[in-house]
Amino acid sequence: MLEILSKGFRDVRSHLQGMRTITEENLSDALQMIRVSLLEADVEFRVAGAFLDRVKEKALGDIVLTRVKHKEKKLRVSPGDHFIKLCHDELIRLMGPEDSSLTLRTRPVSSIMMVGLQGSGKTTTAAKLAKYLSRTGKYPMLVAADVYRPAAVQQLVKLGSDLGVPVFTDGGASPPEICGRSLEDAYRKGCNVTIFDTAGRLTIDEPLMDELRLIQEKTAPDDILLVCDAMIGQESVNIANAFNERIKLTGFILTKLDGDARGGAAISIKEATGVPIKFVGMGEGLDRLEEFRPDGLASRILGFGDVVGLVKDFEEVVDEKKAEEDALRMLQGQFDLSDFLNQIKTIKKMGPLQDVVEKLPFFSGGIPDAAKTDDYELVRMESMISSMTPAERRRPEIIDESRVRRIAQGSGRKESEVKELLGKFKDMRDLMFAMGGGKLRGRWKRMKGVRNLFGGGLDGGIGADHPMMGSGGPLGMPEVGRGKVVSRKALEKRRKKSKEAKKARKKARKR
Amino acid sequence: MSQENQEKKGFFGRIFGREKTAVVEEAPGGGVVVEMIEACGTEPGNDKMGLAEQEGASDANAKEAEQDFTRLVAGLSKTRSGFIRSLDKVFLGRRELDATIASHLEEALVRADIGVKTAYELLESVTERVKRKELADRGAVMGHLKAVIYDILSQVESPMQTADGPEPFVVMVVGVNGSGKTTTIAKIAARHKTAGHKVLLVAGDTFRAAAVDQIEVWAERLGCPVAKGKDKADPSSVVFEGLRQAMDDATHLVLVDTAGRLHTRTPLMDQLKKIRRTMEKQLPGAPHETLLVIDASTGQNAILQAKTFNEALPITGLALTKLDGASKGGVLVGISNELKIPIRYVGIGEKMDDLRDFNARDFVEALFAEKDHNR
């Protein structure tokens, strides 16, 4: 196992080139790709343009830890990739914050008004919302204010009876009257929220748009939710604006997101109106209304799941600070089996090892045979270490024959396997200690990238004397990275840390 | 429930208030004829759905053709304003074409929902010709775009031809939720009713609440029989019975409604296949037409919808609905460019006669019309 990993590390050095600054040039491909992707996701043209300009502005000049080229192979983690990740994060920020709260302030009966185009899913969503509210302890009432579409009232009545929620209907009245009357009826029936299911309408239909305003004047709804089909195209912004100008929206609901529509409308509408996305409709069942979470949708809109996923995988599993401390300790020769176990767990968290390895940029030309490994090996190692006492993990030297026997029994492995594990571990620790004490001086910071790649550990896998660094990137500062944008401040901090590490090592040697 | 009945009464009361109205109708052949049709109520608030179309008592044919075109343009006015107005901006105050034209054209095309792929193809053909100095000015670029888009659309212009055989002509109508299947069925039925055909509606949407009620309301308004099954019945069984009924009654046209379904739901797509097989079993050759209804405000997903439904069924015709709203018809260009499925109908309004045979020339002309005709 360790050999496998160190083989990987050895390969890395030849792939390393250095750090790059995000510039107009190295972004142009990524920009075009993202642009097309956003447009294909139905993000409105101008929203897409403005968004990209903004992210670009932010990103330019950022220094990126990256590998660039190795032989003829192009490596995956490029400034473009970082930029994609940046866009992803920005999309999340823009679509957020998560806010599925409803106002529902009026007492004793508050009201929610559902509006939207024909066929966007208002009636179904109204029923779903009623179910959602019942679950949160409210007593909702559905109000059939769509008097135009044939059988729209019957549909709501049917849905209401399925849910056990009362439905207010008034055949002869106009929608504003219906909504107004429903409030009293709700109070009589002991309901505390009414949901107005209004008719679908075109934004250019003046009389019907005016009807919405009349309903609003009459009932002063606490929440006005625009129901919008996730499949909607470039017109999303105009539609949302048209509704928002007429009756101030408090939120919107994106429906039919269980299909394969990318849902770019979400970002368009949010950008144009500033109104938060409250819920998403994820299926035909009445319980398929979910509170909106921006992260999933951001990947979907961007359509670069793989890149984003890759960068995210590493980010998620690495606890930066802990990684720094671990590295420090390891280089001081204080690496123990608990650290080892943590590393194994970290690697396991990334998913099947094969997948992880395949995602690594330096294996873009295919996985070296030696690195082809099964996850089961990690499980075996984990089980053996788990069968050790904390003291044994801290100081493996104390593990004698009898302890080996116990560990083997506890983990269901052979004694020889336990010994093999211990042997490998000791080799590795010695190697690291040598590194920490010797020739790596002034260079250890360059390992950080590799360390990060593998989730915080195993730095020592790279031989200390490998002439691994080229003359470096634009800043003349060789650096290995996992594709993280590093600010100058952070670089300073790292330099300081490496100095501290040096001092600590000196101290350790004196003793 | 008494409340519901009351409501129903009110509903039907309005529906039964009928009157004779003359309606301008474009015949499948392309010419314009005037037909008398039974129109329904003009109760305030309900006239949206009515067939009333008062203006068009029979005058000279030319005048009606002009009117019809005007209405199409009006229906497409949004498409036009999105597309052409931004194109106008491109050329504003420019004698010659320069490099920035590409980005402006791109915006105009993409914002019309034409689709990224098709927009870029069109763009390329323009910039190439501009480079070669084949297109020198605004008029030339417009003319070129118009020609290319017409070329794409004319290939798929193909009105639905119902055979005049002894057996019923069966149309299966499919689409995603909320695309306008039932309304389109009602509009097609209205058309054929006025042409003196015997039409049967089949309530194949047994899933959605009150979908059967919805088609029944339409059937009542139109005076068509409707075949329906029990609530939550297997749609195939309803369709089976419906076809039998149609054959027994010597019906000309059978319009089969199906439940809206997202094309990604494999079990539901399989259900459609089953419905299709059932038809074939009952009446070899049926369905004679499988019509996919697409909402014109749909973005790039429309192409996926067309592709997936086509793979499952296949689709023999398209109907584009809600073209009168904020939507831009551009999606039609994208679909036609990528999939050569015949386009049968465009829905340009809520009235019964607002369903037109798709006409590529009119569509392109409307798309590129220079002045406001109506608004």
Structure characterization notes:
Chain A is α/β, with parallel strands linked by helices and 511 residues long. Chain A folds into three domains: 93 residues, Four Helix Bundle (Hemerythrin (Met), subunit A) (Up-down Bundle); 192 residues, P-loop containing nucleotide triphosphate hydrolases (Rossmann fold, 3-Layer(aba) Sandwich), CATH 3.40.50; 204 residues, Signal recognition particle, SRP54 subunit, M-domain (434 Repressor (Amino-terminal Domain)). Chain A is 53% helix and 11% strand. Chain A has 21 helices and 13 strands. In chain A, the strands form three sheets. In chain A, strands 7-6-8-5-9-10-11-12 form an eight-stranded mixed beta sheet, sandwiched between helices. In chain A, helix 3 packs across helix 4 and helix 4 crosses helix 12. By secondary structure, chain B is of the alpha/beta class. Chain B has 13 helices and ten strands. In chain B, strand 9 and strand 10 form a beta hairpin. The longest helix of chain B is centred in the middle third of the chain and has 17 residues. The radius of gyration of chain B is 22 Å and the shape is elongated. In chain B, 51% of the residues are buried. The N terminus and C terminus of chain B are likely disordered. Chains A and B meet through helix 2, helix 6 and helix 9 of A and helix 1, helix 4, helix 8 and helix 11 of B.
